[in-house]
Each structure stands twice: as structure tokens, then as C-alpha cells.
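To: structure desk
From: M.T.
Subject: fold request, one chain
Message: Could you run this one when you get a chance? Sequence is below, nothing fancy, just the single chain.
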Amino acid sequence: MNNTLWEVFISARLYSVTLLLMLLILLSCTVNNKKEAPHNVVLIVSDDQGWGDLSLHGNSNIKTPHMDSLAINGASFTNFFVSPVCSPTRAEVLTGRYHPRTGVYHTSAGGERMNLDETTIAEVFKQAGYTTGIFGKWHNGMQYPYHPNARGFDEFYGFASGHWGDYFSPQFLEHNGELVQGEGYIVDDFTTKALSFIEDHRDRPFFAYIPYNTPHSPMQVPDKWWDRFDDRDITMYHRDPEREDLTFTRAALAMVENIDWNVGRITNRLQELGLEENTIVVYLSDNGPNSWRWNGGMKGRKGSVDEGGVRSPLFIRWPEKIQRGKEIKQISAAIDLLPTLADLAGISWEPPNPLDGVSLKPLLTEQADSWNERLIYSHWGGRISVRAQGWRLDQEGRLHDMQQDPGQYHDVAGQHPGLTQALADSLANWEDQVLGQLKRDELDDRPFPVGHANFPYTQLPARDGIPHGNIERSNRFPNDSFFTNWTSPSDSITWDVEVLKDGKYRVELYYTSPEDGLGSTVQLSFGDSSIMSTIRKAHDPPLRGMEHDRVERIESYVKDFIPMELGVIDLEVGEGLLTLKAPQVPGSTVMDFRLLQFTRIDDN
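Reply: Done. C-alpha cells follow.
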């Protein structure tokens, strides 16, 4: 072979090798990119749904095919525990820490606010490059910086209060701080907004938190779901059937079937968008059932620290990684969700506050050769219990064998004195270490913030105000209440606030008032600043809500409130009382009051 031909041959071989190497590099990059692609997360939480409110768990009263499918096509946790009531569980889901550590000690009146030094699951995912959204009930603080838009969520549609009084196109939902009117049945609406968020972000990683507010009362559900129970027999009852209200049971189960339909909307849309394999879908409830109904024979309901008050379903579906039909029996809790989801998503982070939860990824992906025994604590209203893998020490110091006696009928403390003492000691230590951090006096003194530099809106509802004189709250449950019986110049409403930014704020007041209230002057003051306006439009709608209630409610009924411009007030940074009063009352009444909305209109 002459030199020219040899050079051509060598050049061709080198070119082929180069092409092969480039192809291998491209294939390697493709594989690596696929392996390292961020995983979406959809976290769904129901409100007051019991462990037993699922057909998967053996309840023949109800049909929940879409929730069941999450377990059938993913993993289900047999022994998963939450807090006895709403806001504590939500704080634990968000932070991975027991709720007393986060400052949450109540469900309203400011006690639901999560401490500002807590890091939320949304912040963890946002820092990892995810777009984050919440659609539903927040219940961990209303005013910025307690607001969800300050806690890592790019998008918020829903309400920040503990419960809502109207489930059909309700007033006073929020979209990133602005007050908006709902569109249709509230859970359907939340789902629709969440689906839009998922579609808008289908080409980049997202974290969608969907905390529903049903089947929490008031028991309102569209006819489509209520009518399904007209010809359906209730055949499974609470273990003490004389305590059960069957109408309430039917309403709750109808509301859960509506949730199930919405879960199906979410999973179907993920499939249509080609996101099913790469999206982790999580489903749980925030506490035990809100009535005496079938719950697997467990003792206790919402508010209780017994098994029935704190055991919740937990389903995690991730077709790409989690084996279908996997059942996990090790005890776990809401505090585990943040470390678990961050671990599953491959997010590395250093918690600024020590976590109480652990990552459940080894149990989910079958990488765990062993699993350390642990204890899980439940606390509410001065009651504490502790759960080991096979045992529960209840609030009275009674020991229950949860394998042989899941209904907690028999106290076996006398048969296991060593175990009983060990659990009692651990509970006392937890009480000292965790509850000892809950400084109620300090937390009660926290003012409500107004006018944060990073957010233009502040809402001050009746829920957070204090009435004086003749003024009364419309209901003893404050979350969705209003103030009424305002009759005198000596009556007033006050809020203990801290103004965070100097500036001018436009103030709207939402009210109702009969003709007799016309001409009343309304004054809002803080420090040396005040504004005043006169009621010039009568608006006296009736109470409503009862037309949609399937069961008589215990919460406040609602009204259709209208806005009144109070004017623009100059606020200076500082703490003090914000006072609303009526210096002139020409008639026998002033108004029924629902809320104030502040909008900062300058950046001075």
C-alpha cells in the first residue's frame, strides 16, 4: 500500500473512532440526564378523613377507586400517624418536626402560626430549582411572613384560615394575597387550579401541595355526590353504633368520594401529560375522622391521641422507582414526609433545625437491610401518647398490645412493667424536651404583622380581632366568623399588630349594614394616624349556608359582604393596637364586620 492510500486508510479509521466516541459520549449524557432528571412531587392532604374512609381499608360503605389505585400501583403504609387536629399535622408535614417545636399550639387566634425560623418543604424544593404551588387550605399563618407565599410557595390559591363557611364559589379566597371569588365547588376548584399549575410547569420540575378542606364541616357537597348515597345502604358502623349520626356519615363519605374523583383528575392528567412515571404522588389525611363512623374498630376520633385519632392512610406512588402493591408495616409519621420526599427527589440539604422525622426511602426502594426501632409521639390539648412498633402507651398510662388488641380494649401494663416504665420514661423525656420548647406566653404575645416589605397585601379578618363593648362574634369557632351587634360609639374592634414597613396603605373594609346603619362613621386608627369614612350604602343580606348543609353546622353561617373604601392611612413601623370604631352612630346599629384588606401603595 503506497503512502497516500495508507494515509487515507488511517484518516478514515480515526474518523470512525472519533464518531464512535462522540456517539458513546452522547449516549452517556443521555443516560446520565435521564438518571438525574428532577422528579415532580404532588402532595395531597385531606381534612378530617379517617383511616377507615377508604374502600381499600375494607369500608364497604364507600367507593374510592382512585385513592385505592395509589396504593395498588405504589406503596401503602400500614402504621402511619399524624397529629389529632389540622394545623399541627400541616406544620409537621411542612417542617419534618413535631408541631410544638414549630410554635403551633392552636387551630385559630394566632396559635396556628408556624415559627418564622422553620424551614418548609416548599423552601427545600424551591432552593433545589423546583417551582412550588399550594392549592387549598394552608392553616399555618395568614399575614406575611407567615403567609404561604413567604414560606417557599411561588403560587397560592386557597385560604389561610382553619375552616371555611361556604364551599360553593365562596368569597375571600386568595390568589397570592389578593382576595378573589371561588369558582364552583371548592375542592373541584382547588384541583382545577392545581392542574393548571401542573400543565404550566410540565417541562420543568414542580412541587404541588394540594391540601383539601373536606370532609371537614360544614357538611356541604354537591347533589351529584350526595345523591349517590340515597340508595346505598350503610352496613358498617362505628364500634359504638349508638354514637353514630348516619346523616353525618353519609355526608362525610359523599365528600370523600368527591375527593376521590378529584384525585382521579390529577392522576389522569399526569398520565395524559406523560408525567406519570416521573412524578411522586403522595396521599394522606391530617387527622382521624370528624365523627363517630366506621374506622376499623379503632379507639378515638379527631382530637384524640388514641389510635383512631392519629392513624392516617399514606400512599406513595412513583412508577419509576416504587414497586406496585408494596405494603410497609414499620411505624412512620407526618414528620417523615419532608426528609423522605427530599431524599426520593435526590435533594441534598442541611436542615438548619434538627428534624424529628427520618427518610423512609430505604423502606420504599427495598434498600433497607435493617430498620431501627423508633417511637412516635402524639400530643394535643395536654394529652400525650407514645406509639412503638407493636405497642401504645396512652394518655392514662395504659399499655395496649396493638397487634393483639388494635381497638385498645385491654390494659396490659401489669403484664409488661418494664416496657411500660420504659415507654413512660421516654414520654416524660419527650414532654420535657419538645413541649418544654413551647413557650405559650411568648407565642400568645406575638402581634399580627402588617405591611411586610416583600408583599403588598395584609388581611386582618374578624378571626384575629378582639371585640369590645356590645360587639359579639358570630360563632364561638372564630376561623370563618364575623363580628355583629355593633351598636354604640363605645364599641370597638382591636388587633395587636406590628407594622413592618413605613408607608401609605389603602384600606378596604368588608361589611353588611341595614338602612338603619346609614350615616354611621367608621374610624381606623394606629398610633397618631387615622382615617374615617361614612357608611353610604345599605347592604343587608340574610345569613346563608344552611341551604347547602347536609347536617346542621356548628360553625358560623356566612353572609355576602361588600367592600367599603376607608381611605389611605400612613403607617409607621412599630407595635401597637389597631383600632376600628364608630364615633357617630345615628341609628341603632353600625354594621356586621368581616375583614380589613390593606394594600401598600408606595415604597417610601
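Reply (cont.): The two ends are 85 Å apart (CA to CA). Let me know if you need anything else for the meeting.
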